[in-house]
Amino acid sequence: MLAAFCLPAILAVAGLLWGVPSVALAVDAAERLIEIQALYQRAAVESMQAGDAGDPHLKWTAKREAAPEDEERAAQAVQTIRQAVEKYKDYRVALNKGYRPFLPNVPQPYYHFTKKLNRFKAPLTFDLAQPTSILYRKADRDYELIGVLYTMSKETGEQELDAIVPLSAAQWHAHVNVCVPPKGMTDWARFGVKGSITAETECSKAGGWFLPQLFGWMLPVYPFKETPEEIWGR
Known about the structure:
alpha+beta, 7-stranded antiparallel β-sheet, 21% strand, globular
């Protein structure tokens, strides 16, 4: 994960500039970054499951009326995605292209093979052929390709998202009103992207860190499904 990769550098700089006490602060900051990264991954996993429109932790782009060209635009997007990810039916190709599985030894309904560079590039040069994550289902000792996940920054407006894929066909979503648990706590019934805490005041009382929005917009796509509703996951 990103935070783990940065930890040696954080420690080295802290030790040189501020001495041992600040090394402890750097370690604490790095640990928090790791926790946030783990929370992001939990959100990504939750993104693969049908969300309730009334879920206080989810925000959706507005469903638009279809413009005359929307059906063709959506079909072209699906064709682009299919052609781009066909090769990833062999998960080893994904590994060779820099996609890395998150917690491959932990049972999950879907396994995310993520290429962090694509996540950072998306807001600058979005490309349907370069998804942030490739989604697999575990099949015996192998992986079965089921879809992809795209991400965009939380500052992205709905007009920009509609330019990528018509919002009459697809709805992006974001995880909101998230209370990050106090250090070392894993009470996911109260905290996180499915927790009961949804307000900043309640989060503060519980000793947590409130995030109005956790990272950016997400769009799961299942390009090899049959119907538009199945393809766009809504």
